[in-house]
């Protein structure tokens, strides 16, 4: 069973480039993505503000994660919401990913438009219109595999009512979602979790297929307190798994983001189940939150290998109105800021070189406040970014460079996103 419709992904090469895509140079407007790729434009031809991906880092991160997951015996269903880029999903699936994880019905529709065959919805689908569409997808494609979550008896009732109203022929596989104190969704009490499991088994349109949750909602750093909280949660998940009676021969146990996947492997890796990891941010990685918290930075990677940041922002100095203050033409509508401000890394221009001691102190809609750097109007500043999930959603067509650290980067590809 192929993971994605390669022809549908390849068809993106025929999309014309034009004014719809930020920073794409006018010289290639009217040509296709395929033709622009062949031209291998220098990055200097592109306007600012700009977001780029790094080809070498993407390839490295795909391989490193695929090899690590394979060695643990687990499966990987990368969270596709990070990129919403079918071309990048194909790389992950071709490298051995079990499926793709998503969070909403609109995201599921994108995946199905590109023929993704196995999807995990990390949540409870309660929208009746969405459930009717899902029933049609499942009934119309026997090879389409789908798993979702439920965390209350009422959720189970609503799902069952909508599916029966849509006259669904195939039962929908559902995992009980276990949460934790001050976390996000998920049953807080183990007894309530068993009640949800009983409700799923009793629902004619549903099938109890596993258990899941998200440990990352319970810890936000790599402190001892955080890692202990993660371990305690994962042990609860494992214990509850052993007490449920599933309706499938090979149940799913799923957990894991991009921050604590090593602990998921240690606690859940030996269970008699399909243990599915859902890490998504690893592919793009960053120079902020995930750089600081990744297990590979804490020694989990074989041979000391680490993920490489594959995304960078680029902003032009448009004003230097005060000593040690410059304004860049990149802002909140261009780069992420929810998990840390961009980090100045390098200046291209008259004062080319690494940026020592400089920092971005604030972002407006279209400006970044750069302090402590010796720059002048016209200089280009490369920025390290934090949190890929809120970076790629600002760009519908993202240039891929051969090497963001090169003296003269060249654009070798373009990634289309569908947020």
Can you put this structure into words, describing what you see?
- This is Amino acid aldolase or racemase-like protein (D-serine dehydratase).
- Residues 310-402 form the D-serine dehydratase-like domain.
- Keywords: Lyase.
- The protein has 419 residues and is of the alpha/beta class.
- Strand 6 (172-177), helix 8 and strand 7 form a beta-alpha-beta unit.
- It folds into 2 domains: 6-54 and 308-416, D-serine dehydratase-like domain (Lyase, Ornithine Decarboxylase, Chain A, domain 1), CATH 2.40.37.20; 56-283, TIM Barrel, CATH 3.20.20.10.
- The two termini are 27 Å apart.
- It has helices at 6-10, 33-39, 55-72, 86-94, 105-113, 128-140, 153-165, 190-202, 224-241, 261-268, 289-293; strands at 50-54, 75-76, 100-102, 118-121, 145-150, 172-177, 206-212, 252-255, 274-277, 311-322, 325-328, 343-348, 353-354, 359-363, 368-371, 380-384, 397-401, 411-416.
- Helix 6 packs across helix 7 and helix 9 packs parallel to helix 10.
- It is globular, with a radius of gyration of 23 Å.
Reconstruct the topology from this structure.
Elements: H1 6-10, H2 33-39, E1 50-54, H3 55-72, E2 75-76, H4 86-94, E3 100-102, H5 105-113, E4 118-121, H6 128-140, E5 145-150, H7 153-165, E6 172-177, H8 190-202, E7 206-212, H9 224-241, E8 252-255, H10 261-268, E9 274-277, H11 289-293, E10 311-322, E11 325-328, E12 343-348, E13 353-354, E14 359-363, E15 368-371, E16 380-384, E17 397-401, E18 411-416
Parallel strand pairs: 1-17, 2-9, 3-4, 4-5, 5-6, 6-7, 7-8, 8-9
Antiparallel strand pairs: 1-10, 10-11, 10-16, 11-15, 12-13, 12-16, 14-15, 17-18
